[in-house]
């Protein structure tokens, strides 16, 4: 059976764990050639028929190395999935400059720099796609999440602007707003405090936590031809977490 991404070449960052790993696997299953990117020492694996690049996306030469590897290994690029991210909980009054800066560096500065570096290759594609992972925290908040929320609101603004600037080249740019998803980012706390996981699950209309594949399927939609007329949009995949005020 034909795959939904047959012939497509994709970069997925944060692909050693959680949403990125599930997406790299699903994209490859759907026929894409995938370059999986993550930090060294995280157990990153190349997805079926694809490649792996261990790198810190905040390194100054990371965007160049990522696009050079994609062009060298995949022969070009159709889909950039900027998904790697970090969180952190510090009240504003106690947060250091370094804590603030690291969250912005990983979550919004690196995706901007990687997107900028890949635009020339995406312009050559017949179906260029940028998908960025924001969060429901781009639109709401919680105590201690100022740095994270600011970074994810930044991802939303960056993506809308990319959509506007790149539409004339047939390139779409959209962002995901995941809710409470069981991944490397959340499972340590939730394993230790199942009561917290239960609160998040109960808050969602669907009464459960999200799984990485729930998000990978939305990323697949945005990467595929099904989303060819969708651009500049944030797609919440949160089980209805944010419906209630
Ligand atoms: N899990 C949730 O509930 C949730 C909710 C909303 C948004 N998100 C977002 O989803 C995205 C994926 O996170 P996840 O939940 O799958 O968590 P995760 O921790 O399982 O995966 C994130 C991956 O990003 C990688 N990464 C972090 N810093 C990096 C760097 N400097 N260079 C390269 N790779 C780096 C990590 O090593 C990790 O493998 C993130 O952007 C996160 O903010 C997650």
Description:
By secondary structure, the chain is an alpha/beta fold. It has one domain: Rossmann fold. 43% of the residues lie in helices and 14% in strands. The protein contains 7 helices and 7 strands, in the order βαββαβαβαβαααβ. It has helices at residues 18-29, 62-74, 97-124, 146-166, 184-192, 194-203, 212-223; strands at 9-13, 33-38, 51-54, 79-82, 129-133, 172-178, 234-237. The chain is globular, with a radius of gyration of 17 Å. The model has no long low-confidence stretch (mean pLDDT 98). Residues 13-14, 16-20, 38-39, 42, 56-58, 83-87, 106, 133, 135, 178, 180-181, 183-186 line the site of nicotinamide-adenine-dinucleotide.
